[in-house]
Design a protein that fits this description.
Length: 482
């Protein structure tokens, strides 16, 4: 395949993804060839070839002197995972042994020349790095005092707290100044929240599959993870949670209600309300992981659990890692009735989060371009996730199922048969492609036949080649259809 042919293939796949996900519904007239060429930065010739290909595949139909129209199609996208495996023992809770394995996966995934489909990072060109640099420069110039602040005196910089309060107010949460603690990313926020509400050997309920570093954190704090089955559609199963809490006292329930990692599920409002009611009924706190909450694909922002009437028992954790830059390490906990204890833990365990960066982020937020940036980012991530989904369905073994993320930028893929994706990881790296093996998203080694793909980078010809190589690797496994 030469470079030009790959270009029009890639464009066709991107457009195809938009059609399959109803962004361009049946009967819709596509933008003109000139417009598509401007929007996608491809030559007129490449756009024409991509449209020809889509016509051959039955996605579009040319109408003389008018343009290209989306064809009605009877075959749905299909192959979507509807339910995570539910063969999960609710009792006894299990301990975790994944740390070294994960460190190895992360290290190999970020090696130079390896397609960045492993670690969930956005491409740096999608982030407002130049604007952030200017904010740092302004703060360095105007606030020399920040360089000499005592770290254990005041963990929070008031400018940033004020910006956060304003943002949360727009989302229906009126948070007092002293309810917020600024942290080193969402990682520290989750750590402080867990250490506040749980003691050694306590059980905490987690989504399954769930974020692997959270599982590691639970283990290293001497806690025990209780895996609650979660679906790519609605997130944590509340029926399973209720069965679990009737059997076992849980110190907390940790959920990522908007754009969960790894499945990109969004918990519907009715489920959010039910979860809050369960927390009230069985008297447990909720740790709400909001790290992807700005990256929802629906028109409206899902309502945070913290905004519910029982919000006082919610410790809401978040950060700017997925939307501004993972290197900032700026996050927060809004601790509700636990806020004073969270603050005290922060003081004891780390003093404060870098005040220069806190004020630089506040400066960036004051400038008022964050919401605009988020709107563009959400659209971009959605396009990337859709394009990646199409590539996976095209190149992976028949019977492969994918999540249909409703936010964020990761895709969960379930392979047919008894493929062990952790065992194949080094062979993928040798082919210069990374992924996160499914088993690390479980405390008990489930999801061996799954992988998570990072869709934080624009889908290019190189991505198509990388996914084709992965597909080839999985297809050549003798057991893939067992
Ligand atoms: C679900 C989830 N929670 C928390 C974090 C940690 O975020 P941060 O980089 O801000 O520490 C991540 C990072 O990938 C994540 O995916």
């Amino acid at each position: 395949m030469n470079a030009t042919s790959r270009k029009y293939e890639t464009l066709a796949l991107n457009l195809q993804a938009l059609i399959e996900h109803n962004h361009f519904a049946a009967g819709y007239k596509l933008p003109s060839i000139r417009k598509l060429s401007e929007q996608w930065h491809y030559s007129i010739d490449t756009v024409q070839k991509a449209l020809n290909l889509l016509e051959d595949r039955g996605y579009v139909q040319p109408v003389a002197k008018s343009g290209y129209y989306v064809q009605a199609r009877s075959t749905p996208l299909a192959n979507t995972c509807t339910q995570a495996p539910d063969s999960i023992a609710l009792e006894p809770p299990v301990n975790l042994e994944v740390a070294n394995q994960i460190a190895n996966f992360l290290k190999s995934s970020t090696r130079e020349g390896v397609a960045p489909l492993g670690v969930a990072f956005p491409a740096h060109e999608l982030l407002p790095i130049a604007t952030l640099r200017r904010s740092y420069a302004t703060v360095n110039r105007t606030r020399p005092d920040l360089l000499t602040l005592g770290s254990h005196v005041e963990p929070n910089q008031p400018e940033l707290v004020q910006q956060l309060q304003q943002r949360f107010e727009l989302m229906g949460m009126k948070l007092k100044r002293d309810e917020l603690v600024i942290t080193d990313g969402c990682t520290e926020a989750l750590g402080l929240a867990l250490q506040t509400v749980a003691r050694h050997n306590d059980v905490v309920a987690v989504e399954s599959p769930g974020y692997y570093l959270l599982l590691q954190m639970i283990e290293s704090l001497g806690l025990r993870a209780l895996e609650i089955p979660s679906s790519p559609e609605h997130g944590m199963s509340l029926e399973a949670l209720e069965i679990a809490v009737k059997q076992t006292r849980i110190a907390a329930c940790i959920v990522c209600p908007t754009a969960s990692n790894p499945m990109g599920s969004v918990m519907p409002d009715t489920h959010r309300k039910k979860l809050l009611d369960l927390a009230e009924k069985y008297d447990f706190p909720i740790v709400e992981d909001n790290v992807y909450a700005d990256l929802y694909f629906e028109r409206f922002r899902p309502r945070p659990l913290k905004a519910g009437k029982q919000g006082d028992r919610v410790l809401m954790c978040g950060s700017f890692s997925k939307s501004l830059s993972p290197a900032l390490r700026i996050g927060y906990v809004a601790g509700g009735k636990y806020a004073a204890q969270v603050l005290s833990k922060k003081r004891i365990l780390s003093g404060s989060t870098n005040p220069i960066t806190q004020v630089a982020v506040a400066h960036y937020l004051e400038k008022g371009s964050f919401e605009r940036h988020l709107r563009t980012l959400r659209q971009q991530f959605e396009t990337q996730v859709r394009a990646m989904s199409s590539l996976v369905l095209k190149h992976f073994p028949p019977g492969t199922r994918i999540s249909e993320p409703k936010g964020g930028f990761v895709l969960w893929v379930e392979l047919p048969g008894d493929i062990d994706t952790a065992a194949l990881f080094n062979r993928a790296i040798a082919r210069k492609v990374a992924y996160m093996p499914g088993s690390v998203f479980s405390a008990s080694g489930l999801y061996k036949n799954c992988i998570r793909l990072n869709c934080g980078h624009p889908v290019t010809d190189d991505t198509a080649v990388a996914i084709a190589k992965l597909g080839q690797l999985f297809l050549t496994q003798p057991n893939h259809l067992v």
